[in-house]
Amino acid sequence: MTHSRPTILRLLEERGLSPSRALGQNFVADPNTVRKIARLAEIGEGDLVIEIGPGLGSLTLALAETGARVIAIEIDRHLVGPLEEVLLDTTARVVHADAMTVDVADLLMGEEATLVANLPYNVSVPLVMRILEEVPQISSMVIMVQREVGERLVAPPRAEAYGAVSAKVAYFAHGSVVGKVPAAVFVPKPNVESVLIRLVRHTPPASCEGVEPEVLFDLIRRAFAQRRKMLRSTLKQLLGPEDFLAAGVEGSRRAEELSLDEFAALARCLP
Ligand code: SAM
Questions:
Q1: Whose CA is nearest to atom 17 of ligand 1?
Q2: What is the mean pLDDT of residues 222-249?
């Protein structure tokens, strides 16, 4: 059983709860949506799943239905009680913690896992980056985020949404948009559309071998500080004409056009 709209409204009313805007609480009230997310995550019997922000358990129930072992990290102490009741007949475990600081690798105890989440809008990018950078045991993710954020995470060079975050994500994973979710399935209804993003971790591309990730990411961040300016001007403190020549990247190009491989070639030429 997953939650319908009347169930969500009843759970909120019975507990005297009102969704917190600050914590990005928009609860899914549509069984089809949460089952679709569980299918896209390609999880099944015995798989280990981390969910961030289970809320009232809409998605958690659909994940548990697959037979996966779910560890759900929820920051809001007011939701922990109702959530534990909702999940009583499942094997899902609730951890009351902030997903930005909890030791996720420790919760996994060395096992590989999938992350599945309807992420709170205000921390979705830092949460995804934290998992990609710090928790290599998480080999894939299916996340629901607001459309503009999702498009930014997986945009290729030259796309309007392409930015420093897209290039960083490409270092760790292959990403794609795998679905759209209308605002109407949420309680309360947000003002924006959401998308489903799938990220599958890969080893960093060969072009990045031997380049320190921090050095590469710092260069990418500086380059995108003025995304439409020529790189020879944006990066002039760091790289001279001979460096652009050595990297095979023309200094007249702009950050928004450069692939991760090209950023890596430039990073190799840093002093
Ligand atoms: N998964 C539920 C659903 O789909 O109905 C709720 C999703 S709601 C968009 C986001 C949830 O993340 C809320 O329950 C909120 O309290 C929780 N949350 C917000 N910030 C968090 C954080 N830093 N760590 C863990 N949970 C967080």
A1: 53
A2: 96
Six token digits for residue 88: 């009583």
Domain-ending residue, one of 180, 202, 224? 202
pLDDT in tens, 190-214: 999 999 999 999 999 999 999 999 9
Do 239 and 121 share a domain, yes or no?
A: no
- Whether residue 198 sits in one domain with residue 185: yes
Residues 122 and 35 in one domain: yes
CATH number at residue 40: 3.40.50.150
Last-in-domain residue among 202, 228, 254:
202
- Let me know whether 236 and 122 are in one domain: no
Question: Is the pLDDT at 8 greater than 90, yes or no?
Answer: yes
Strands 173-181 and 138-146: unpaired
Averaged over 220-227, what is the pLDDT?
A: 95
- Return the best residue to mutate from 18, 28, 49, 52 for the ligand 1 pocket (most ligand atoms within 8 A of CB): 52
Contact 48, 114 (CB under 8 A): yes
- The answer to whether residues 117 and 249 belong to one domain is no
Whose alpha carbon is nearest atom 1 of ligand 1? 54
Q: Which of 3, 73, 76 to mutate to test the pocket of ligand 1 (most atoms within 8 A of CB)?
A: 76
Average confidence (pLDDT) over 50-63: 98
Atom of ligand 1 nearest to the CA of 20: 16
CA of 117 to the centre of ligand 1 (A): 8
Predicted confidence at residue 1, as pLDDT, reads 78
Specify the pTM.
Answer: 0.96
- Do residues 142 and 40 touch, judged by C-beta distance below 8 A? yes
Q: Where are the alpha helices (DSSP H) in the chain?
A: 5-15, 31-40, 58-65, 77-86, 104-108, 124-134, 147-154, 164-172, 213-224, 231-234, 241-247, 260-268
Which residues span the domain enclosing 231? 207-267
Q: Which two tokens stand for residue 199?
A: 């990220």
Res. 2: pLDDT tops 90: no
**90 and 165 housed in the same domain:** yes
CA of 257 to the centre of ligand 1 (A): 35
